[in-house]
From TrEMBL:
The keyword Membrane is annotated on this UniProt entry: yes
Coiled coil location: 71-145
Subcellular location: Cell membrane
Organism lineage string: Bacteria, Pseudomonadati, Pseudomonadota, Gammaproteobacteria, Pseudomonadales
DUF3772 domain span: 145-201
Domain Mechanosensitive ion channel MscS, chain residue ranges per copy: 630-695
Protein family (similarity comment): Belongs to the MscS (TC 1.A.23) family.
A GO term, aspect molecular function: mechanosensitive monoatomic ion channel activity
Protein name, entry field: DUF3772 domain-containing protein
Annotated Mechanosensitive ion channel transmembrane helices 2/3 domain residues: 588-628
The UniProt record lists the keyword Transmembrane: yes
Amino acid sequence: MKRRAFRLLRLPLWQLYLPLCLLVLPLGAWAEQDSARQLAPQEVATQALGLQERLDQIKQAVSADNDDTRLGELKAQALELGRNARELLDQLQAEQAPLQTQLDVLGPRPEPDAIQETEQVSSQRDQLERQLAALQARDEQVLAIQNGASALVAQIVELRRGLLKTQLAMNSGSLLGVAFWSPLFSPSSEDARLIGDFFQQLRGVLAQAWSAGLVSALYLALALLVGWYGRGLLDRFLTWCCIHWLPLGRLRRSALTFASSLDTFLVAFIAVTLLCQSLFRHADAGSEIAILADNLTEMTLFSALIAGIGRALLANDRPSWRLPAMDDAVALALKPFPLLLAGIVLLFGILERAHPTVGAGIRYSILLNGLSALSIATVVVLMFLRTNHVRRQLSAAGTAPEARSTLAGLLHMGAGLVAVAVLLALLAGYVQLAHFLAYELIWAAIVLACLYLLSRLCVDAIEAVFAPDNRCGYLLKQSLNLDDRHLAQAASLLSALCRCTLVLLAIVALLNGAFGDTTPLSLLQRFVELLGGDGWGQLEIVPARIFNALLCLLLGIYVLRTAKRWLERDFLPKTSLDTGIRSSVVTLASNLGYVLLILVTLAALGVQWSKLAWIVSALSVGIGFGLQEIVKNFISGLILLTERPVKVGDLVSIAGVEGDIRRINVRATEIQLSDRSTVIVPNSQLISQNVRNVTMSGAQGVVGITLTFPLDIDPEQVRDLLLDAFRRQESILETPAPSVSFSQLAPTGIVLSTTGYVSSPRSVSSTKSILLFEILKDLRAAGINLSSPQRLQIENTSGEAETSL
């Protein structure tokens, strides 16, 4: 003990102080937290008052503003206000928890006839209750602010939608009219003055930035170097990383394509940041030039995304690494179009965003919107004409063009139709509609391209991770003691989950691009409300709901068919389930999916489930008179798919019909006979009648041949001859071995029965025929005759059949 104490004294001071510090620091933090909690009520009151004032200011601004850009900014402020209120609400709830805990420790107030508590405990309870009541009151106040912010966001969304509809429906003059081009040739004096003032301010900022010429020149040189050489260097580095770091396979291609689409974005971000520092670093915050610099950065990044995705998908530098199925000549013909589209979007995007800042008239806005829509539609039409021309040249030269899927063809045709619609809208004078369609086309192309790249990357990455021949897959296999089949199943499930998630995100992105007010949380909330909330409150058949229902129905059918193909071809073949169970699972999942689709479609149509008594009554009458057989067969089909007394591939016999089950549908089951014809049997008969399932337990087929010979033959010689004929037949199983039995001794002769087994009852008929040929040939060769008349008996698992010879 003394030695231990002495060693303890010899320890350095920091080693002795360290445990004390570890004990004291949490206590100090708790003390600081407690003191902060004591100061929280005043701070919360101040913050709540500030939030309420901000909310009132935003409401006032919304009521007095009709500009879409300004409404978007106010919406962002309202969302930020809601987040701040949520944080303050969480703080209040956190402060209420310890007070409630202390009240629970003190317990309820004693009854008058019970033992009275001390005055100190009573005063402490009163103080805690007052503090808790004050916090709850502030809690309700902040919650009201949060609800007000949410309601304000919804109001702004509706205002922006109404403003968008008004703008789209407004006819501002045809593209061929003089009024459309008037701002270029005869601008008003006020517009000329505003534009002149803006350029004067721009020249002043540029002159101030270049007053220190060395710094600005350095920024500009760096921007040019990064923009000119950065992408090439980064692309080489990414290629080297994909080759040396990733396993051999499709993951290299998808990873390099995805990285190539991002390197342009990254290089553009660095270059435009350096350029803005070179030109606009002296601009005042919130000034017109600062807003111009921000718009330049945003539009440059958006345009770089267009150029990067297009260059990555075409992959003209590395044709062997190209992801989409595209001919080299087609990809080469499309090479300039992504960069051209990116340049058009950058130029007109900056001009359109600078217009509200400058304050010029509405005619300039219409001119810019029309020119941008015209340029985008023209480039898209030229792109399609160019690709079709190249494909026709390939076909004329005897080279088959690349095979495209139906979905790719639909997207190609849809994009062409939208581009033509943009040109027609410009000619008709609906400039805002044309502008909306043009940029929605660009946005949809970006979203779908990102969906394609991300889905390919995720699927290839998952397959590489779970591949047994890779290191990661081998470690998973050894660590979790999994089979290759289990790894394949996990890869299929995760791939499907990633694809579904990406598709949902793509839908959200498309809606966000179209309306600018959709987030994943709001989309999920609307979907939940659609299924069980106020969306079912009343049945109103209006054109918008009909369109939504049709769109939901078409998308649902496509999703269900895609999921069915995935189950049939990708996931279920990697399981240990037999063919019958796979078919049952696919059919049951398809039926449930269609039922869900019908419910969702009715929800989109606005059906009110609380007032469907008339539909239920009509169905009851229909079931009572004419639909009872259909309902009975439907229920029987569900029973067949769940209990599985028969399954696809079974050999069954019912009511004189014997054949293989090929498909179990909702109403009836298809049975294929031996002559390849099909019998449709209602599902109710398979449930209510006696069904003989020959292959349910894996039964073997039995071939039995009974022959009658004259009395003067040698039975043992005939027995050996029959056994030899059965043994020579390859389809006859060795176990159980074939046998010959002395069946009967009759006046007409000796009756011998020969029995052999085959692997399946389906082989009985063909094996019987071959054996008869062989036995008759052997009997003639041995000089043995059959007695007359004769009976030939063939036995199998379906019963005995006798044929007289």
